[in-house]
Design a protein that fits this description.
Helix content is about 40%, strand content about 10%. Strands 2-1-3-4 form a 4-stranded parallel beta sheet, with helices on both faces. It is globular and about 60 Å long. The protein has 9 helices and 4 strands. The protein has one domain (about 25-255): Creatininase (Rossmann fold, 3-Layer(aba) Sandwich), CATH 3.40.50.10310. It starts with 7 loop residues before the first helix and ends with a helix. α2 crosses α9 (about 235-255), α4 (about 95-110) runs parallel beside α5 (about 125-140) and α8 packs across α9 (about 235-255). By secondary structure, it is an alpha/beta fold.
Amino acid sequence: MMLGEMTWPAFDDATRNPAPGTGEDAGMVIVPVGAVEPHGPHLPLAADTMISDYFAGRLVRDLPGALVAPTIGYGVATPPQRLGGDFPGVLNVSGEVFTRLVGEVLAGLARHGLRRLVVVNSAIDNISFLCEAARIVTDAVPATRVMIVSWWDVVGEDFRDALAAETGVARDVDHHAGMVESSLVMHIAPHATRPAPAGADGGPPRRFTYHVLPLPADAATADGVVYTAAGSSPGIGARVAEQVAYQLADAVRREMR
């Protein structure tokens, strides 16, 4: 059930009088959260938002009576070293604005009696701000419970290890716009993807785990491919999607019922 497509009487009725058979999932809301930023030359700017929308849609199939809230499609800035540099197309908001936006959306849902809120996220730099928003809301609105889950949280270590062994793409070079994420977007939004590049243009950039701004020249890339998208395919994406969808539903049932 898409909250944004409901009339106000239908929404009011759904929150006050859950339909028969909806059981433990009535009163639960799924909030997809993404970002708009470069993902190399082969993936769309809104890849993170598309992924969150997809898994929110999959999740609601397994949770009769749950609602899907309109997507929060803008996230906080990703450090340029993970994007491979500064590229056109970044549309982000400050951490302060993002925290307040998410917090007010969650609080508004809670005021309508929807106290079990599942935030499906696909942008790693959103996480600390999502947690802060959830902390504020759960402190302010009694009996509210918030679960924040990103797709990589539930894909499973054994599954990722097996996929790395099968494809030959090591996990330490499979991050932002890498093989797994590229495959996932190729599966869920084939119309918006391009063939994956074999690797970083001009060789891999220097990688480090701390942050330096502005980005050093030897840590930048020409096309935004920091790791490798080699070996990406819709078939791999379909397998990842099924694994995540199953594990995500299981995790939400465990934490939110």
